[in-house]
Amino acid sequence: MNTQDQHGRGRRGRTGRRPGRTRLLAAAGAGALLLASGLAAPAASAAQQSGAAGDGHGDKVLTVAVAQSVDSLSPFLAVRLLSTSVSRLMYEYLTNYDPKDAHAVPGLATKWESSPDKLTWTYTIRSNSKWSDGQQATAEDAAWTFNKMMTDPGAATANGSFVTNFAKVTAPSPTQLVIRLKKPQATMTALDVPIVPKHIWEKVQDFSKFNNDKSFPIVGNGPFVLTDYKPDSYVKLKANKDFWRGAPKFDELVFRYYKDQDAAVAALRKGEVSFVAGSPSLTPAQAASLKGEKDIHVNEGPGRRFYALATNPGAQAKDGTKFGDGDPSLLDERVRHALFMAVDRKTIVDKVFQGHAVEGQGYIPPRFSSYYWQPSAGQELAYDPAKAGQLLDQAGYKKNADGKRVGKDGKPLDYRVLCHATDPNDKAVGKYLQEWWGELGIGVTLDCLDNVTDPWLAGKYDLAFDGWSVNPDPDFVLSIHTCAARPQTPKDTGATDNFICDKTYDQLYAQQLAEYDPAKRADLVKRMESRLYDLGYMNVMAYPNAVEAYRTDQIESITTMPSAAGNIYGQDGYWSWWSAVPADSDGSSGGGTSTGVVIGIVAGVVVLGGLAVLFAVRRRATAEDRE
Amino acid sequence: MTSAETAEAAEAAESAGTVAAPGPRALAWQRRRASAARFWREYRRHRAGVVGLAALVLFALVALTAPLTVGSDVASVTDAPGQPLQSPSGHFPLGTDQFGRNLLGLVVWGSRVSLLVGLLAAVLSVAIGAVIGITAGHFRGWYATVLMRVTDWFLVMPTLVLAIALATVLSRSLGTVVLAIGVTTWPTTARLVRAQTLAVESRPYIERARALGGGHWHIMSRHVLPNVMPLILAQTTLIISSAILAEATLAFLGLGDPTVVSWGGLLQDAREAGAVSSGDWWYLVPPGIAIAVVALAFTLCGRAVESVLNPRLGVSR
Fold it and tell me: How far apart are CA B114 and CA A28, in angstroms?
């Protein structure tokens, strides 16, 4: 599904896996030297282009360092955050979200209304939006896009869930789009589907294979037009001067892929990039060191993600087949609550995130205030190891002589926790879990894997680190815990997060989807969150903040979302890049660059000289042995 | 005379109380003592080797006494004494890591894992190499051909890539790392040992032993092994240093057990915490230097041992 990215599930590229001993040596000795002198790696490559300084034609270029590569440029296939963000920039959606409070605002559609029976939605399509090849964007394009997704399974790969409830989509006139639903659907003003130009895309044969990366520039009608792309390297976009909302201030936008976050931060320091997004955010140490830097602004906003510990509830397919090997003791709600209570969420926020996160409670982050829910005093599963121990005693898991909890069958409680090898937070929190649950008498094995998808889908885990980005409309993140999201058979892949299936929850889900009144719907969503909390399958530990940094000598201003203290990269909309204003000053990093080069050359000469002396000495020493 | 007979003869001689001349066993011990003393005299003349040995003794002492000096509590995250990433101070001589743990303690504690894995992996690697080398040199024929082709194959495979592949497939634990290093670094040892075995087996006394009815096992264990042993010892010392480096590399690449404290793991933690770009040098330098020093010390010792046992190598002191 669209801008959601499941935390680590095939989302992020592997970081820093370049084999070779040179890396180690660099870290061991040379790295330290370089660092201590404040001349990190880019000294050697300082001659490369510098972010907004332009490339000679006076073009204002905004370079963004991203930690993710593009999975596909086709909006029908793209699921990663970077790719969907790029789709946002290339194509208009029917509606957009307001940068202040994320309510629906006009996009390609100028207004919309539903019929009294809640089943027919009529959108008015704007007549001042043109494709970049000069053709007019019409309702026909939108209708064709939706119809394609409804009829071609290949085109439904990424956003198919939006159209499963559509009965018929028509375009009676170039400015009118009519969608007929099977059942009422509350998400009709939050359809995150890029509308593509029919006259280009109807030539595509196989939507499941077409990646939209063969001919450039790619025809679109968003604020930017994609002009160049190199896999695992960069995505280049040019400003669309005819964009209906107004042309972007920067002439060019480049997303440059950095495998290593430290390298990206160093590039920001040298002015090679204007913005660093981090994956998913800068580390506390990086943020702290960048805060003191001149011309660099560290932006911290409430995140869209929640960071949770998901429990395997005994994986089951829709056809009733049980599979996987989740620990049966986790089926006992008391055990789940005990595990919940033995996690000190405050310590995780203070120590692991070092304050760059908000303590987790309900399922939806506080940023989305209308859906944010907190447990009541009596309901809250606060940190209380003593009570957790009592709960486990009641559940029949008593401590034995060695201090280990054992069940009635004499088997000790030992849980495997699935963690993402690429995410340092998982490993750090894992260390705490080992000690907290160890005190309780529960053994913890951390299974840190590069690819957690396989054991995850097979249900072969006890607990797992989990996390999703939440959209302004919470429908999707709620839908992944319904029974219907489970796979049809154990062999299939379902949309489910961790196989939760609860009747009460499902009823509430259906109710909220059919509720068009925002206040009533929000109330239903909160009841769902409450139910999910009580079940104890999802322990939301924190809402990590978005911590990102940009150069103020290259970007003068940029819109955050929410506009008061929000994030910049990965917004619901194109606000940040569309609104970014270039700074006047040019080449401010010139001085630093030349000193860096000079020192680099001097160091190189010294090293070479040393090697020459060493070589000469060796030659003399072995002169007698040689013939 | 077999050893059993020798022993009997010696016992008989002792029990009879007629110890006019030392028995064969005592003679053997005398000879060994003498050669050990000679070895040590020779070794002492290699100054670099002595320095390396001193460094190793120091590190071994630090690692062995770690439970008394720092204790396993040093790795605990919940009882971490300091604030995250504090720079070195009187209280924390090497600063703290991202959890607020004492880095000096962690480096001391990490030496245990790094040294242990290095030693075990080297022993495993040399053991595999020695067995393959001796049997290939002894049996010759198609057996040796097949084994040597396998060895060649391992020899041309990039070691680190193979080790990474193994460590990725298997579950993350110390045993996996030992195995991954051990089974990828043996081919050079196998080649060396086979060459020495061929040289030993061409000596006339092997032919005599065979003529007297010595079987394969007897020849390999009684005559070939003692003669290739010096080579194996020198090789082990040299491989330990590369095994420690390999362990650190794997841990640094995130392929070690994340819950175990090791030097490579500390470097990996530092990188993940962003210590490289934020200039927290105290997180990176101590484990890095420790790895470099131990690897250097083992190499110095190995070179010294090698040149003592084989003066023709002409290794400079």
Answer: 15
What is the predicted pLDDT for the residue at A32? 38
Mutation site for B-interface testing, chosen from A273, A283, A452 by largest number of B Cβ within 10 Å: A283
d(CA A188, CA A170): 15
Give the distance from residue A104's alpha carbon to the nearest chain B alpha carbon, in angstroms.
Answer: 38
Q: Is the pTM of this model over 0.90?
A: no
A399: exposed, middle or buried (C-beta count within 10 Å: 0-12, 13-18, 19+)?
Answer: middle
Give the integer Cα–Cα distance in Å for A257 and A267. 12
Give the H or E element holding residue A66.
Answer: strand A61-66
Beta strand A546-551 with A275-276 is antiparallel
Are the C-beta atoms of A562 and A367 separated by less than 8 Å?
yes
Residue A64 β-bridge partners = A255, A275
The two counts, helices (H) then strands (E), for chain B are 14, 0
What residues contact B204, with CB distance under 8 A and at least 6 apart?
none
Distance from CA of A232 to the nearest CA of B (A): 20
User: How buried is residue A157: exposed, middle or buried, by Cβ count under 10 Å (0-12/13-18/19+)?
Assistant: middle
What pLDDT shows up at residue B312?
67
Residue of B nearest to A284 (CA): B273
- Chains A and B: how many Cβ contacts under 8 Å? 143
Distance CA A108, CA A323 (A): 45
User: Does A435 contact B at CB distance below 8 Å?
Assistant: yes
Mean pLDDT of B26-51: 90
Say yes or no for a CB contact (<8 Å) between A283 and B249.
no
User: Is the Cβ pair A289, B259 closer than 8 Å?
Assistant: no
A434 at B interface, C-beta within 8 A: yes
* CA–CA gap between residue A212 and residue A214 (Å, rounded): 6
Q: Residue A290: closest CA among chain B residues belongs to which residue?
A: B278
DSSP H or E stretch at residue A177: strand A176-181
| 3-class secondary structure, A250 | coil
Q: Report helix, strand or coil for A228.
A: strand
Least Cα distance to A248 among A516, A557, A23, A484 occurs for: A557
If we measure between CA atoms, which residue out of A86, A55, A64 comes closest to residue A213? A86
pLDDT digits (tens, 9 = 90+) for B266-288: 888 888 888 888 888 888 899 99
Strands A61-66 and A275-276: parallel
Say whether A31 and B288 touch across the interface (CB within 8 A). Answer: yes
Rounded to a whole number, what is the distance in Å from the CA of B269 to chain A's nearest CA? 8
Burial of B79 (0-12, 13-18, 19+ CB in 10 A): exposed
* Strand extents, DSSP E, A312-427: 357-359, 398-399, 405-406, 414-420
CB contact under 8 A, B314 and A625: yes
Residue A137, both tokens? 């964007």
- Option in B99, B168, B245 nearest A351 (CB): B99
In whole angstroms, what is the distance from residue A395 CA to residue B150 CA? Answer: 56
At A22, the pLDDT band (50, 70, 90 cuts) reads very low
- Alpha-carbon torsion A96, A97, A99, A103, what sign? positive
Question: In this model, does residue A57 exceed pLDDT 80?
Answer: no
Say whether residue A347 is in contact with chain B using an 8 A CB cutoff: yes
**Two tokens, residue A435:** 């000690």
Average pLDDT of the segment spanning A37-45: 38
Amino acid at B197: T
pLDDT at A226: 93
Predicted local confidence at residue A147, as pLDDT: 92
Gap between the Cα atoms of A418 and A7, Å rounded:
12
Give the pLDDT band (50/70/90) at residue A402.
confident
